[in-house]
Amino acid sequence: MSDMPPKLAEIVDEFVSAPRELVLEMLIEFSDEVPPLPAELSGHEGMEQVPECQTQFFLRAEVRADDTVQTWFDCPPEAPTTRAFAGILAEGLAGASTAAILAVPDDLYTRMGLATAISPLRIRGGTAILGRLKRQIREQLPPSADAPVSAS
Fold it and tell me: Which of 22, 83, 144, 147 has a C-alpha 20 to 30 A away from that of 56?
């Protein structure tokens, strides 16, 4: 999976090579990998809600000066599958550049083989999380030099 950050590619490979009966268990383990929110985000201030998820899910991406991305996710522990998406992204994208994250395939969760373990509705929620994360990153990047300049 060369089209994604190495840590994320390793996670994807683990899921793809795992016996089907272990996939759900592996997914649930990632729900424990979501780092706690810093105090300044505890009320979801500055975070975006992902309404496509069946449960309340909030995220924030911040592009740093070195072109790496810091991510924050919040989802209740009572929603382990959705929370697992956050855990996968938190671990798999840690320290990744904006370009590497933007290159992550939109069908990430399908590539991981999760369609055999969870419902299409949950897959759509995970896809929406990744899509909103990428959009937040794109919005923070400087305009491309080849982009048309609007006249004022």
Answer: 22
